[in-house]
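User: quick one
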Amino acid sequence: MGRKYVIGLDFGTESGRAVLVAVDNGEEVATAVQNYQDGVIDEALPGSGKKLEPDWALQNPADYLHVIEQVIPKVLQTSGVSGDDVIGIGTDFTACTMMPIDKEGTPLCMEPEFADRPHAWIKLWKHHAAQPEADRINEVARERNEDFLARYGGKISSEWFFPKALQILDEDPEIYHAADRLIEAGDWIVLQLCGEEKRNACVAGYKAIWDEGYPSPEFFKALHPAFENVVADKMTEDIYPAGVKAGGLLPHIAKKTGLTPGTAVATGGVDAHVAVPAATVTEEGKMVMIMGTSVCHMVCCKDKKRIEGLCGVVKDGILPGYYGYEAGQTAVGDIFAWFVNNCVPGWVAEEAAKAGTNVHGYLSKQAARLQPGESGVLALDWWNGNRSVLVDADLTGLMVGMTLTTTPAEMYRAVLESTAFGTYKIIKELEEGGVPIAEVYACGGLPGKNPLLMQIFADVTNREFMVSASDQTVALGSAMWGAVAAGSEAGGYDNVTQAATRMARLKDDSFRPDPAAHAQYERLFAEYERLHDLFGRGGDDVMKTLKEIKLTVRGSNG
Amino acid sequence: MGRKYVIGLDFGTESGRAVLVAVDNGEEVATAVQNYQDGVIDEALPGSGKKLEPDWALQNPADYLHVIEQVIPKVLQTSGVSGDDVIGIGTDFTACTMMPIDKEGTPLCMEPEFADRPHAWIKLWKHHAAQPEADRINEVARERNEDFLARYGGKISSEWFFPKALQILDEDPEIYHAADRLIEAGDWIVLQLCGEEKRNACVAGYKAIWDEGYPSPEFFKALHPAFENVVADKMTEDIYPAGVKAGGLLPHIAKKTGLTPGTAVATGGVDAHVAVPAATVTEEGKMVMIMGTSVCHMVCCKDKKRIEGLCGVVKDGILPGYYGYEAGQTAVGDIFAWFVNNCVPGWVAEEAAKAGTNVHGYLSKQAARLQPGESGVLALDWWNGNRSVLVDADLTGLMVGMTLTTTPAEMYRAVLESTAFGTYKIIKELEEGGVPIAEVYACGGLPGKNPLLMQIFADVTNREFMVSASDQTVALGSAMWGAVAAGSEAGGYDNVTQAATRMARLKDDSFRPDPAAHAQYERLFAEYERLHDLFGRGGDDVMKTLKEIKLTVRGSNG
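Assistant: Done. Structure below.
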């Protein structure tokens, strides 16, 4: 038996990618990326040109299918690997990205009669037009004292499944009733690949209020009389953990891609979550952080705990047999990018060019010379609100301590530190709630780009930060779940721990906390934490008042 | 009798200037500026090269005399005006800028035996090395419940007269004892011009704790046994209001400058204060603001009131017959300059260049399009501490409300607005204390440069802002006091109201408050004021804690 391979398919916001991975050692043999032709549809529908309201964000399912037809043949061709040697396929998707489909699984937007109806299309994760429905869900849930609220930090996001489903019913009941089912794109893609609808626990738990069962029909009825049986009518109660084989690859897809019919297809996953085993983590006590424009924190625990302000706690949601805890910071790399684009003077760019580096590189070098606390500047990392602990989108950024001699590098460092304080607050919240976190495993774009940031995170949190060796941890993770779905008899693995041991690797260098720096950071964190509570828990409502005033002024302008 | 002229001599931090002004209508006929050769001496003494400690700032009296010999002949020559037609000279000086002199009025630093002794030189206003002495003065004054503290916002600044005098005694008692007198440079220059020591009420009151009398010998003794008779031994109790004729020009100065011996020389003044009549203001209810790197607020009132956190209340301190109230903001133009140098991205400079303007111009244009409150961003204007109301140098800048879409123009506008809120707070404090302010008269560098700033000040404070027509209001004001010192018999004026009516002018355009904008600003100011009190009055000490941490870290770095 020759060398065996698995394919990880990673469906992002703008593009989809395939990575072809060797099962024996996790070698990433080939990668291919395909941009979505229609990308994020936020102005007008393709074809009909029908205009969309503000805050809408849709996608075209044809783009996903096009990805499959393009990237799988490409990785086979580039690598010279035969389709016969590919034993499994795993997928991950943005979430909640959902759509109405008919009995055959065809999205309603692909049917000519519905093509000009916005609600027939796929609602992308960042479709924010279901806020009124989210508000209603939260209000009704609070009135009814629904238990589930506590699992999601007290609030259901407008980005999640039921607000989006309810928006369809509210605004285009015909589409709602015409839909045979409402389904996550991550489950739909598995259905397309293998013809089986095996919905995964990860999206069900984190995005659709599933906890070994959905909210009651009474709850849904209280939202809208016609919504009472949304689960029974439009969904399914059968939910599967990650790594289960959903089915075998359908012949027509096999033909188009060069793979073998019947190849194992794993249940789908959420992009962030499949990265966990790809960062070598398959047990409790180890937090995985995907660090990019935003940060997602994931940690597993055998026990179910109630923690304030998490994004969700889901059984089998990350790893089978564990409760998966997810938290997040809405903006991290995004704040750094904002800072560099809006707050860094031209002379820094000139100095950076002279030194043969970019602005981030130059500022990092200058900022690295500062001791913790030396600048006297402190920030709250809420430029895009606070997702975890406070769960409040209306909070905003704050910076304090500037003098006439404060430098761009000092402010840059304060901004980096603020995001580390945000993560430290989440770690403390989890540990105080009974979920221990001894080490952190980082992946995503930031760890490789900004070593100063990583050292600050280690120093602030007083924890060692390991870094995943792969540049595409998410796609690798999907491939690993494909290897588990294939099983050892087919040349894969029987469980994710085996797969991680063989296929996942860390970089040699980790970031170890410096005790002296941490001691200094504890003093700064005390200030951060007090301001966090002052501005985040109603002690001083300046941020909300300013937002209210801003909305009033902008509203009256136009 | 032909046209008569007066000369205003304005001694600044880096240079001195003369302006030759026609008495009949205030026409500024000629101006000349001379830089001080030794400028601000803050590293080593001229001549001996003796190194100075940090925070020292000295000047060389020879530079002041050189100014007189250069600029007076120059304005006569440029204008073609004869020295015989110059009827009066007025002067203003930075303060407190003080020195030890001998019996003949010669500064000790000009005597060879003392030339290498730092304490023999002139301590410039921004000499900050007398902080330990200021701390001692404040401590002893509090212990003894000295009444005068309340007049100065509860704190004597290290920049003022007695801390500097006490530092001489503390650190070089031989110089202290060798000094026949300790004198303000503004009074010393009058002594040089006319041979008369007529100390002026303005510096005595605002810088030397004078209130129709100095603090008691017991108080001074409590500071240092040898300091008991500092007033009797080294100063004088004779204090004169502005506009009094101190004496006639000495023949040797007349010879060097081309003026007539005996020409009226007015008592000296502080730079900011002489601007008041030059901005047309000679009565109560009208605040004059000198707006530049910092802002100085001056207003007169017939009554003596106690106001929290003023820089000083002095009888005859600004205008004869009135109590003069002074307040200030430590940094205004300085904050804008810091912002532009440290926080404005390169692309703004490029856009500005394309639009044929500079960064301030470009940002002003963008910021002018915003409604009050539209940005959602709010700042506290404490980049250089808070001088008035809170009187706390350890406060620092704060900005709140930033999101990922916040623009440089929005932050720029928030910074401008923060300084207007600072002024509004001072105006409200004065009015609540019984000192009415109906209108504001602005002069200095900022009003001409930044119309958006002026409109924001008018809108925030809900008061009309008039702008002085002269670009050199301070020098014009000195010249006007020279005309008053000369008196009507010599072709001048009998009082400052007459002088202001004839010699001072406003620009045609003023800045009138927009009621709608003011209403919106009241909402924002409520937020500013609450944060002002929260961070400025001990509700939350984050600024001080960050400064403490910063000092600890910098100290331990060596």
